[in-house]
Design goal:
Layout (H helix, E strand, L loop, with lengths): L10 E7 L7 H8 L3 E4 L23 E5 L11 H14 L4 E4 L2 H4 L17 H10 L3 E3 L18 H6 L13 H14 L5 E3 H6 L2 H10 L3 E4 L4 H4 L5 H10 L4 E2 L4 E3 L4 E2 L5 H13 L27 H12 L4 H10 L1
Parallel strand pairs: 1-2, 1-9, 2-3, 3-4, 4-5, 5-6, 6-7, 7-8
Antiparallel strand pairs: 9-10
Helix pairs in contact: 2-4
The structure holds zinc ion.
The site of zinc ion has 5 residues, from strand 1.
């Protein structure tokens, strides 16, 4: 569907299809108005080895996929070398990036039963092989701050927590979100030659914290998956817009399109309408826009009205620079603009 202003191609760097929904992926991309979708992961744990997931490759070049290392075996004999080899093999077979999920820092424990932190030095092998293979790391650690809040009606995401109680981390069982963010920063600082894309707008950092990260770490990037509701709050929209203007090569378009047999995002809304809301949010200064589902809250969105010069970088070119797309993808997108 038409964008308010942008006319070129779009890469969505944050999509998920599982095997049951995979046959519909091209239809989904067409309905959404997406040229290339980066399939991060099918949301299964433990993640399946890359080579067993070749069904996704039938939908190349429209769908490009990432390798998802199984970090739950950390500390076992031969773990590091096996991980390194599996990433290199995946890169050879066409993986465009690496996906790391929030179980790192929250759930994963080593063989000694100790929780593995995001900056655990044993993970240096992963960040190192990412750089070696030329793959960016799309990393989701921590989660929305509301998920550390009280589990009751006072929580703006209460309804979502009722549907997904496992999203709640506001107990002694889990580290504070600030601890996870500090650990993420130490890890990014310690691995300057690896490109990181902290998904969900920097793993839900505040605009002020994001500015610090962009200024300090040239290898730090973010996507916009499932964070439109926060970005468009009247009180933060100006700060967010300035981040796009001051750091135009660090922010990538991602939607968090989820199509699995147990989780749909969006759920009760046609894809063309859902994505039209996104285009309107990024490209206009409209006010009083509805929150994209499933986020709930009593505020409305103000559009970011991104400058003309930022839009191609945000929607396509930053992704083309960072991900290891095939020559076919590159040719496809070059010829249409
Ligand atoms: Zn996601």
């Amino acid at each position: 569907m038409a964008h308010p202003r942008y006319v070129e191609s779009v890469i969505d760097v944050h999509c998920h299809w599982d095997r049951t929904m995979l046959p519909g992926c091209i239809r989904d991309l067409d309905a959404a108005g997406i040229d290339i979708g980066v399939h991060l992961w099918d949301a299964a744990l433990p993640p399946a080895p890359y080579e067993t997931q070749s069904a996704w490759d039938e939908f190349a070049p429209r769908v490009a996929r990432c390798v998802v290392p199984d970090l739950s075996t950390i500390g076992q004999d031969g773990w590091a070398e096996a991980l390194r080899r599996s990433v290199l093999r995946a890169a050879e077979r066409g993986a465009v990036g690496i996906k790391v999920w929030k179980n790192l820092g929250l759930h994963i424990r080593d063989t000694g039963g100790k929780r593995v932190t995001v900056d655990d030095p044993r993970l240096a092998v992963l960040w190192g092989v990412a750089a070696e293979a030329g793959l960016p790391v799309a990393i989701h650690v921590g989660d929305h701050p509301d998920f550390w809040g009280p589990f009751d009606e006072t929580n703006p995401r209460y309804e979502e927590l009722v549907n997904h109680p496992d999203f709640h981390f506001g107990t002694d069982e889990f580290p504070a979100l600030s601890e996870i963010h500090e650990s993420l920063e130490r890890m990014i600082a310690a691995n300057p030659v690896t490109n990181f894309i902290a998904v969900h707008f920097g793993c839900f950092l505040s605009p002020g914290a994001l500015r610090h990260m962009f200024q300090t770490y040239p290898n730090f990037h973010v996507d916009t998956a499932a964070t439109v509701a926060d970005m468009g709050k009247a009180e933060s929209v100006e700060d967010v817009r300035n981040l796009f203007i001051d750091f135009p090569d660090r922010i990538l378009f991602g939607s968090d399109l989820i199509r699995t047999d147990w989780w749909l995002m969006p759920e009760h809304m046609p894809l063309p309408d859902y994505f039209a809301e996104h285009w309107r949010f990024f490209e206009t200064n409209d006010k009083n826009m509805p929150l994209p589902l499933p986020q709930s809250g009593d505020w409305t969105l103000t559009g970011l009205d991104l400058p003309e010069s930022v839009l191609p970088l945000f929607y396509r070119d930053n992704a083309l620079r960072l991900f290891k797309f095939s020559p076919t993808v590159r040719r496809m997108l070059e010829t249409d603009s």
